[in-house]
Design a protein that fits this description.
The chain is an alpha+beta fold. The chain contains 18 helices and 13 strands.
Length: 688
């Protein structure tokens, strides 16, 4: 045995001998009768549970058996019966320790080693498991002890076996529950005052029942005092109450007093069994109520702590949200305001922090940045509630509180609550100054571009004359460089002018026949490919509904998108473009342009619509797609780039207002008739 283990083993051995001596004092009747209370069973169980992970546990089990036999023999028990009780105690303690490791993990011991200490019995599940494990181990011990006693001393009665079983179970419940708990006595004086009152009343009640009026069978009434103690006193004092007054009942009965002393004189063990059952009921009721109260108090404390932490976090979050310079609003599934911070109220033209479910609609004065009215269905959070993936959107706000107007960027995100209801979080950011600064820069750039075209024309003219005069001479190559630089400068200036026109020009919408417009653009690209001696592109047109838009800007939009697709054509592959339209919500037409080019990387599909963006290997001013985005947005539509779902390349998708005139309806009828009668090689479907 290790030296580190020895002191702990000695302490358990001393405590075990004390428990045996205490149990021997509760023998009723003859000296060889069964003790009423046997704390040694609980000490043995805790002892071997603590030794379960030790390689010396068999030594401890042997020491336990030897001590039992020696102690009982010293009290006058027959040596054979003493050895039997020693073996039974060892078997029962080992069975309890093995079962406790599986069914009561962490009870009394948490780790390996003799000094490991774990938590005590503390919950109702702990109590139930302890009852089951103790019953199983006690049943094994009672069966083994009963069989041995039959072989040594004759046939024992079933009453003796029942006493053995109940005694050991009650011992584990009371004294096992006391392990690690009796030291946790409260320091609150109010608790001690109430404890003194309960203990005093209990002492008086037990004295009355077991001594003054012992012939009256009212022992059951004492359970009410145990319930009182379990509901009001800390668990340590409740266990002490059960131990003290359970022992009191046994002592009175042992001296022939009380309602259980006179039970069945012909069977001396019956009153022992009854008083043990009484003590067991006290233990079960008291411990069950005390553990339930402890669990409830622990749950209340956790809830109180969680509530305090949640309140602190909520207060911190409220402070942070209210101090934000950006506006923040939360809307419910119906579009009603649930919450908004003061910054949102200032940006939207209101100072209310919470708007009691009122809707955040166009009555706040929401417009497109160009001043066109913004319908409720076009608002970004309404589109988000409808399931769309909405990109940040600039909105002009003009109402009585903001008469001069303010441009606010809306960033929206959907939130799914645990109940399944959808909410939308909207973050508002004032971009008025940024927008004004950008517009001033673009206006200045447009004016500069316009002013530079005249000197550029002069440079191009003189360069052409100079090239003619120097024909055949080496310096003519340098003139070619001047002409190429001038051409690049003209492309850049034309891009700036186009963007300025798309941004500031007045819209003059009319019904546009997209079929005719695209056919004309396709014919021009055929001619361009023929003059450049390059492979001509192939165009396929599907259904093309009429749109209500500015014809000049729409032509520029389509030409830019088609030219962008042709620039991204794969080397050695004939460019193929497919264009089709279909109805879209809110009176719009969705137009798709698909190509078989190199495609656009996923991370660049948003950036290509920004100003001066140029992809690798692309020419131009970098404003072509920014012009497209501006044209589409001025008409109230959206534009996006995605991968071609039918192969390599890109799909450009944009929306424009659907044609509303009678001419648009005629075009739609013509298309339907053409679709029914056209052959696959129809010129309308495959121009040129």
């Amino acid at each position: 045995m290790s030296l580190q283990m020895l002191p702990s083993t000695v302490r358990f051995a001393v405590l075990y001998l004390v428990a045996i001596a205490a149990g021997q004092l509760t023998i009723l009747g003859m000296p060889d009768a069964m003790p009423v209370i046997w704390p040694a069973t609980a000490v043995a169980a805790v002892w071997l549970v603590n030794r379960n992970d030790s390689r010396w546990r068999w030594v401890d089990a042997t020491v336990l058996g030897v001590l039992t036999a020696v102690a009982l023999a010293a009290t006058g028990m027959d040596i054979g019966l003493a050895l039997l009780h020693g073996g039974t105690a060892t078997l029962e303690a080992l069975a309890f320790a093995v079962a406790a490791v599986r069914w009561m993990p962490g009870i009394w011991v948490t780790g390996a080693g003799p000094e490991g200490t774990g938590r005590p019995l503390a919950t109702l599940p702990d109590l139930v498991r302890a009852l089951m494990v103790a019953t199983g181990a006690a049943f094994l011990g009672a069966a083994f002890g009963g069989l041995g006693q039959h072989l040594i001393a004759g046939d024992p009665s079933l009453t003796v076996t029942a006493i053995w079983l109940v005694r050991d179970v009650v011992s584990v419940l009371i004294f096992g529950a006391a392990a690690h708990r009796l030291l946790a006595v409260p320091a609150d004086r109010r608790v001690w005052r109430e404890a003194v009152i309960i203990y005093a009343i209990s002492a008086a009640a037990y004295f009355y029942v077991f001594s003054v009026n012992e012939d009256l069978p009212i022992g059951f009434a004492l359970l009410a005092i145990t319930v009182w103690a379990a509901l009001r006193l800390p668990t340590a004092l409740t266990i002490g109450h059960v131990m003290i007054f359970g022992t009191t009942a046994a002592v009175f009965t042992m001296h022939g007093q009380g309602p259980y002393a006179a039970i069945d004189h012909d069977s001396p063990g019956t009153h022992t069994l009854v008083v043990q059952l009484f003590i067991g009921v006290l233990a079960l009721v008291g411990l069950a109520l005390a553990f339930s109260r402890d669990e409830r108090n622990a749950l209340i404390e956790r809830l109180r702590t969680s509530e305090f932490e949640a309140t602190e976090k909520a207060g911190l979050m409220t402070t942070i949200v209210n101090s934000m310079t950006e506006g923040l609003a939360i809307l419910d599934q119906a579009g009603g305001l649930v919450l908004r911070n003061p910054a949102a109220g200032r940006l939207l033209g209101s100072t209310n922090q919470v708007a009691g479910g009122s809707a955040l609609g166009s009555d706040y004065g929401f417009f497109h940045p160009d001043g066109a009215p913004l319908a409720d269905a076009e608002l970004p959070y309404q589109r988000a509630l409808a399931g769309e993936d909405v990109q940040p959107m600039d909105v002009l706000i003009r109402n009585a509180a903001v008469p001069e107007g303010r441009i606010v960027r809306f960033n929206v995100a959907r939130l799914a609550s645990p109940g399944g209801q959808q909410h939308v979080v909207v973050v508002f950011h004032d971009v008025t100054a940024d927008r004004r600064h950008r517009d001033e820069l673009m206006s200045f750039a447009g004016m500069v571009a316009h002013d530079l075209l005249n000197p550029l024309t002069t440079i191009e003219g003189w360069a052409e004359i100079l090239e003619t005069e120097l024909a055949g001479y080496k310096p003519a190559e340098r003139v070619g460089r001047i002409q190429r630089a001038a051409a690049r400068m003209r492309t850049f200036l034309n891009g700036l002018l186009a963007y300025t026109a798309a941004r500031d020009g007045k819209l003059m919408p009319t019904t546009i026949n997209l079929q005719l417009l695209l056919t004309d653009i396709a014919n021009s690209r055929y001619d361009q490919a023929e003059s450049n001696r390059t492979q001509p592109p192939q165009f396929v047109f599907g259904q093309l509904d009429a749109v209500e838009a500015d014809p000049v800007l729409v032509r520029q939009l389509l030409e830019n998108l088609i030219d962008n697709a042709l620039e991204l054509a794969a080397p050695g592959v004939a460019p193929q473009l497919s264009v089709a339209a279909q109805p879209a919500p809110n009176g719009m037409v969705r137009i798709d342009i698909l190509d078989n080019g190199l495609g656009i990387p996923p991370g660049m599909r948003q950036a290509i619509f920004t100003n001066f963006h140029q992809g690798e290997g692309q020419g131009g001013s970098g404003l072509e797609l920014a012009v497209c985005k501006r044209i589409v947005e001025r008409h109230g539509g959206t534009i996006e780039a995605a991968a071609n779902p039918y192969g390599s390349g890109t799909r450009m998708t944009f929306t424009l207002p659907a044609g509303r005139s009678a001419y648009a309806r005629v075009l739609e009828n013509q298309w339907q008739q053409r679709t029914q009668a056209a052959a696959p090689s129809s010129p309308a479907a495959h121009p040129r």
